[in-house]
């Protein structure tokens, strides 16, 4: 039920209780039907017929009034099971249960940006500027839904498997929506979304990009393909599915690390151990760990490029085989054995960094490795390698720049907010979740979507992403940075009246418990880079 048709005009409206800056401000145009109202909560400027929604499904025309249809999410430190979760704001509605707010300690409640409405077109104060007291100190939280064109998701995928070459394009529905970026420890990394794909390509690329970003931010699964690489299904907090196979284990370390960690346990049980890894393959007797344990050299001759003793790069190509390489037969990375050093009966373990692949060999008279049953004591160490692997997960971090418009909703002199954040005077959160603030200019924040409330993300067809952001600080600090002091309201007022501007404001609030993993946002020092 979306509508995005261009006409003009404004219906009549009641006088507001608060200083009024309208969500829709375009002067009436006689060509526009009386039944339509214009939403200017984003640059799309939908004209919405009565009973219909705007193009983003977030604003509606109900009886000639523009409403934000989702409730604004309030966090409570303690929330009883039988408490009502959804409560209408008592804004002159005789049918609505009146909320007097007197059962709440103000230090127990946090207003998030989820569902709160925006500051667009940038001159309006934020919809909620809420005062409260924490440990006797007057605090204020400035709450808004940001419209982010400059934002992306950094996705950490715990797998050794080859997903695609660094810089390879990542696609959804055939459109490029990101790229493979630098791999990290035991994980492949993707950079998804961002202004280049939102604005720099075709309309379809932008549309598919916001669709992907909204789903990923809202903890839903997305299906991606990587040019020259894997098919992927990723979802925050879930194991990745690579080429149809659900990943199980995140490796304990690189091949060299595994050799070092378990060297003492292998002593006396194996004469050589090779831990196969796409990046750094470890060879125990050559490795410093083996030398420190006085292990006898085995005479093994490895393929690949020797980096330092017992550490080999590029023993095979990346792939979905052993240790994130493309090999199925581990012996293929052994060139041979030095007949002056190796001996018949030499016991060789080959394993991957997760222990998912492992094989036991004994050299025969011709110094050829022959497969044998793995001794139980060796098997126990391989199982311990597996036990030390953590469950493979996808982690999704939202990264966004809070630009001029957002900051103007906080203060008339936006640079003062930036400075106050950098001076650790303001705590920035996204839906109440902690946000890491990057150093340098501007306000670039990063939050784990798993710590944010459900359905924190939305879209507008510009295209851009909608996401919550809150700035909490002492009231005195807010005044000092030129905050919109005339719009500061107590929590009780907010609970009983909703947002200060009525056009496009949410009509209900939703209580959610504060997630245990998150620090309480009020009274916290910011996470600065
Ligand atoms: S897309 Fe949504 S926010 Fe933008 S003008 Fe339309 S209804 Fe309003």
Record the SSE blueprint:
Layout: E1 36-38, E2 47-49, E3 59-62, E4 65-68, E5 72-76, E6 86-88, E7 109-111, E8 128-134, E9 137-148, E10 151-157, E11 169-172, E12 175-184, E13 187-193, H1 195-199, H2 203-217, E14 222-226, E15 231-234, E16 241-242, E17 245-246, E18 249-250, H3 255-266, E19 272-276, E20 281-283, H4 288-292, E21 300-302, E22 305-308, E23 311-313, E24 334-337, E25 347-352, E26 358-363, E27 369-371, H5 376-387, E28 390-391, E29 394-401, H6 404-408, H7 414-422, E30 427-430, E31 433-434, E32 436-437, E33 444-448, E34 458-460, E35 464-474, H8 475-480, E36 489-490, H9 491-497, E37 508-513, E38 527-528
Parallel strand pairs: 5-37, 8-36, 19-25, 32-38
Antiparallel strand pairs: 1-2, 3-4, 5-7, 6-37, 8-9, 9-35, 10-13, 10-29, 11-12, 11-14, 12-13, 14-15, 15-16, 16-17, 18-28, 19-20, 20-23, 21-24, 22-23, 25-26, 26-27, 29-33, 30-31, 30-35, 32-33, 34-35
The protein binds iron/sulfur cluster.
Iron/sulfur cluster binds next to loops.
Roughly what percent helix? 10-25%
Question: Would you tell me the structural class of the helices and strands?
Answer: alpha+beta
> What is the helix tally?
9
Write down the overall mean pLDDT: 89
The percentage of residues in β strands lies in 25-35%
Ligands bound, unique: iron/sulfur cluster
Cα-based radius of gyration, to the nearest Å: 29 Å
Low-confidence stretches: 1-28, 92-97
The best one-word shape is elongated
Biggest sheet strand line-up: 17-16-15-14-11-12-13-10-29-33-32-38
Number of domains: 3
Biggest sheet architecture: 12 strands, mixed
Number of strands: 38
Distance between the termini: 43 Å
Oligomer: single chain
């Amino acid at each position: 039920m979306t509508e995005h048709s261009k006409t003009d005009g404004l219906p009549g409206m009641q006088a507001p209780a608060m200083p009024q800056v309208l969500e829709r401000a375009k002067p009436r145009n006689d060509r526009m039907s009386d039944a339509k109202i214009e939403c200017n909560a984003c640059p799309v400027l939908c004209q919405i017929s009565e009973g219909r929604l705007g193009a983003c499904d977030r604003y509606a025309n109900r009886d000639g009034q523009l409403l934000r249809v989702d409730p604004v999410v309030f966090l409570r430190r303690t929330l009883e099971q039988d408490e009502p979760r959804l409560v209408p704001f008592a804004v002159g509605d005789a049918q609505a249960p009146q909320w007097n707010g007197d059962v709440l300690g103000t230090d127990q409640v946090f207003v998030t940006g989820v569902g709160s409405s925006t500051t667009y077109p940038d001159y309006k104060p934020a919809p909620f500027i809420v005062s409260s007291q924490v440990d006797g100190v007057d605090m204020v939280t400035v709450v808004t839904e940001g419209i982010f064109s400059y934002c992306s998701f950094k996705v950490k995928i715990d797998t050794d498997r080859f997903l695609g070459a660094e810089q390879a394009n990542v696609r959804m529905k055939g459109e490029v929506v990101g790229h493979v970026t630098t791999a990290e420890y035991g994980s492949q990394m993707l950079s998804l979304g961002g202004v280049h794909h939102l604005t720099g390509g075709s309309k379809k690329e932008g549309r598919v990009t916001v669709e992907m970003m909204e789903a990923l931010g809202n903890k839903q699964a997305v299906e991606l393909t990587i040019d020259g690489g894997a098919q992927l299904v990723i979802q925050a907090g879930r194991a990745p599915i690579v080429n149809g196979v659900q990943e199980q284990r995140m490796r304990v370390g690189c091949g060299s690390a595994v050799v070092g960690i378990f060297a003492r346990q292998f002593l006396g049980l194996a004469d050589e151990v090779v831990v196969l890894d796409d990046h750094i393959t470890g060879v125990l007797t050559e490795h410093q760990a083996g030398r420190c344990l006085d292990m006898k050299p085995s005479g093994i001759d490895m393929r690949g490029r020797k980096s330092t003793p017992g550490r080999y790069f590029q023993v095979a190509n990346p792939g979905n085989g052993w240790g994130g390489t493309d090999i199925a037969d581990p012996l293929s990375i052994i060139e041979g054995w030095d007949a002056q050093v190796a001996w018949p009966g030499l016991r060789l373990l080959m394993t991957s960094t997760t222990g998912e692949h492992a094989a036991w060999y004994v050299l025969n008279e011709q110094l050829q490795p022959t497969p044998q049953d793995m001794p139980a004591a060796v098997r126990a160490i391989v199982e311990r390698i597996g036990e030390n692997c953590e469950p493979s997960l996808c982690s999704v971090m939202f990264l966004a720049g809070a630009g001029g418009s957002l900051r103007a909703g906080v203060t008339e002199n936006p640079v003062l907010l930036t400075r106050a954040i950098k001076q650790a005077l303001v705590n920035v959160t996204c839906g109440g979740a902690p946000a890491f603030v990057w150093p340098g200019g501007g306000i670039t924040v990063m939050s784990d979507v798993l710590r944010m409330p459900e359905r924190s993300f939305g879209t507008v067809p510009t295209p851009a992403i909608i996401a919550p952001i809150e700035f909490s600080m002492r009231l005195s600090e807010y005044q000092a940075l030129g905050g919109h002091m005339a719009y500061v309201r107590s929590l009780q007022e907010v609970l009983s009246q909703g947002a200060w501007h009525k056009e496009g404001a949410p009509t209900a609030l939703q209580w959610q418990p504060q997630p245990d993993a998150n620090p309480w946002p009020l009274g916290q020092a910011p996470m600065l880079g």
